[in-house]
Amino acid sequence: MTKGKERVSVAQATEELAAGGAAFSAGDVARRAGVTRQAAYAHLSKLVAAGRARRDGAGRGTRYTRSWDFHRVYPISGLDESAVWTEVQAELPQLARVPSNVRNVVGYCFTEMLNNAIDHSTGVDAAATIWLTGDALTVEIVDDGIGVFRRIREEWSLPDDLASIAELSKGKRTTFPERHSGEGIFFTSKAVDHFELASGGYRWRVDNTRRDMAVGESTTRRGTLVRFDVDTSVDRSLAAVFAPYTNVDTEFDRSEIVVHLLEAGAAFLSRSEAKRLAAGLDQFRVVTLDFRGVEDVGQGFVDELFRVWSREHPNTRFVPINMNEGVRFMVERGLPGNQSRS
């Protein structure tokens, strides 16, 4: 350990050395953190694999440099997300060249995602990393807490983490209703070009450039990783993001559900699946149900969702879209008077 300096974590030691701008070695990190060279090397290798550090040379001649434009690790206790965003703008003067409406979108997404780590993760530290190359901006926020999908699963007694992803995609779903509206993740996922939320070995990805989303495996198992990309040359505003999902009184009263996110599979046959899909949707006036990728639906699923649930919640209207011929037939057969569209 370097004389006269208090021992710090491997992550903090790496951050401090990288902040200096000069190349450093695994040995430098080990001495600063008071750990073995092997432990420091393992940490640096993970950063390189994630694109957060650059490695040059081989063996004991290997040196590392930062690949990010902004990187800080913050203790979560007492952290203020708006103060961090102010720090980001001070550290990255090139953000001042980004149009203010686009910069406000980035600021909204950054502070919402960091605030989620503060209020929901029960973690100790949160790391914020930003890459800004030309017009391409990428933000990553990582915490060491319980994990977003696990927290939602346990809070709402869901069957698995996939069900947690489905709930998040609806909007207005939060484990802390006293302080949160449940809109942050939903609107952030709509505001950026690409959005990724990973935890517990699963990853939810939203590609707004292709109007697509998918669920897959992730190497992130502990804590939560949020990552989003924004092309700062593309005009966008918060008003444009909110408008499709709000009414004339600016109330968040609409949602869009991609049905195949609800289950691992392409068939929805049972009433219980319909009940899981509809949970919480009575908070919206209009809900678009996107059936892309769904091959089959059962009579019980259709009846429970479009007749039973809709009769019990007359103030919510379902609008099914992107149905194949078989799904359309089942919906229209179950509801002779239902108006549906592809």
Describe this structure in a few short sentences.
With 342 residues, the protein is an alpha+beta fold. The protein has helices at 10-19, 26-33, 37-49, 81-91, 100-120, 148-156, 161-170, 184-191, 238-242, 271-278, 299-312, 325-334, and strands spanning 53-56, 63-66, 70-75, 125-133, 136-143, 194-199, 202-207, 212-217, 224-231, 254-258, 267-268, 286-290, 296-297, 317-321.
Layout of strands and helices, then pairs:
Elements: H1 10-19, H2 26-33, H3 37-49, E1 53-56, E2 63-66, E3 70-75, H4 81-91, H5 100-120, E4 125-133, E5 136-143, H6 148-156, H7 161-170, H8 184-191, E6 194-199, E7 202-207, E8 212-217, E9 224-231, H9 238-242, E10 254-258, E11 267-268, H10 271-278, E12 286-290, E13 296-297, H11 299-312, E14 317-321, H12 325-334
Parallel strand pairs: 10-12, 11-13, 12-14
Antiparallel strand pairs: 1-2, 3-4, 4-5, 5-9, 6-7, 6-9, 7-8
Helix pairs in contact: 1-2, 2-3, 4-5, 5-8, 6-7, 10-11
Number of structural domains: 3
Strand-pairing-aware structural class:
alpha+beta
Quickly count the helices.
12
Mean pLDDT over all positions: 84
Which fold name is given in CATH as the topology of the largest domain? Answer: Heat Shock Protein 90
Largest sheet: 7 strands, antiparallel
DSSP E strands, number: 14
The CATH class designation of the largest domain is: Alpha Beta
The arrangement of helices and strands along the chain is HHHEEEHHEEHHHEEEEHEEHEEHEH
